[in-house]
Design brief:
231 residues, mainly alpha, three-stranded antiparallel beta sheet, two-stranded antiparallel sheet, 51% helix
C-alpha cells in the first residue's frame, strides 16, 4: 500500500482553489478518513447532528448500480464529526438537502456520483492542477486524515476505529512513521508492536491487537488537530 499524504500547505492550496459543493466534498475527504465509495454513498439520514456522529454503512462503486455494503464488517462504523466537517455539511445543505438522499452529488449534473473514476476526471485532476499540487488519487486523502490524526497525538485505537480497519495492527503498521516518537502511551505501544510482530506469528499478533485495543483509551485532541489546518 503506497501512502503519500497531502501536506498542510497542499491541503490549504486545494481548499483555496475549490468552491461550493466541491470544496465541501474535499473537506469531507480530508477530515473524515472515509473511502471515496463510502463518502459518495453518504445520506443526510446518516448524520446525527446531536451526537456529532456519522454512520458509515454503505458504499457506492462504479461497478454497482445501487448502494453496496462497506468493504469489511468493521467498515460499518460510526465516526466523529470534527469541526471542519460539521461546517462543510452545514454549507452543503443548501445544495442537496431538499434534492434527495445523497449528501454529495455531481454539481455538473445534479446526479449521484458513479464512482472514483468520474470524480477524478470531473473535478479532482483539474482542481489539483489549478492548485498547483502534485497529483495523488482521491484515496490519498484517507491516508492524509490518518497521518494528520496520528501526528497530532490521537490515539491509534481511535484512529483505527474511525478508519474502519479490521485490526489496530493495520493502522500501526501502515502509519507507524506518523506516530510521535515521544514517551506517550501511544508511542510506546506502537514501538512495542513493531518489535514484537517481527518475532511473532499470526496468533500472537491477534493477541497483541486485543491487548492494544483494550489498553488504548479514547483521547481525542480536537483543538490540537484543528490547529493543523486553518480553514
Amino acid at each position: 500500500m503506497h501512502v503519500d499524504p497531502f501536506t498542510q500547505d497542499e491541503q490549504q492550496a486545494i481548499m483555496e482553489s475549490a468552491t461550493g459543493q466541491i470544496r465541501n466534498q474535499c473537506i469531507a475527504f480530508f477530515w473524515t478518513g472515509m473511502r471515496t465509495s463510502e463518502l459518495i454513498a453518504l445520506e443526510w439520514t446518516d448524520i446525527d447532528w446531536k451526537r456529532k456522529k456519522i454512520t458509515v454503512n454503505k458504499a457506492l462503486t462504479t461497478a454497482a448500480d445501487s448502494d453496496e455494503t462497506t468493504k469489511t464488517k468493521t467498515g460499518t462504523r460510526e465516526i466523529d464529526i470534527l469541526a471542519p466537517v460539521e461546517q462543510a455539511l452545514i454549507d452543503q445543505k443548501q445544495y442537496t438537502l431538499l434534492q434527495g438522499r445523497k449528501i454529495f452529488l455531481n454539481p455538473a449534473t445534479g446526479k449521484i456520483w458513479t464512482g472514483d473514476q468520474q470524480i477524478r476526471k470531473t473535478f479532482w485532476i483539474p482542481l489539483l492542477k489549478k492548485a498547483k499540487v502534485r497529483y495523488r488519487n482521491p484515496y490519498q486523502t484517507r491516508h492524509t486524515y490518518a497521518s494528520m490524526m496520528l501526528s497530532a497525538g490521537e490515539n491509534p485505537a481511535w484512529v483505527s476505529s474511525q478508519m474502519g480497519h479490521s485490526n489496530i495492527m493495520i493502522t500501526l503498521r501502515t502509519y507507524a512513521r506518523w506516530i510521535p516518537s515521544d514517551n506517550s502511551k501511544a508511542a510506546k505501544l506502537s514501538r512495542c508492536f513493531l518489535q514484537k510482530t517481527q518475532k511473532s506469528n499470526n496468533k500472537k499478533t491477534e493477541d497483541l491487537s486485543a491487548i492494544l485495543t483494550k489498553t488504548c483509551k479514547k483521547m481525542t485532541n480536537y483543538d490540537k488537530i484543528q490547529s493543523l489546518f486553518c480553514m
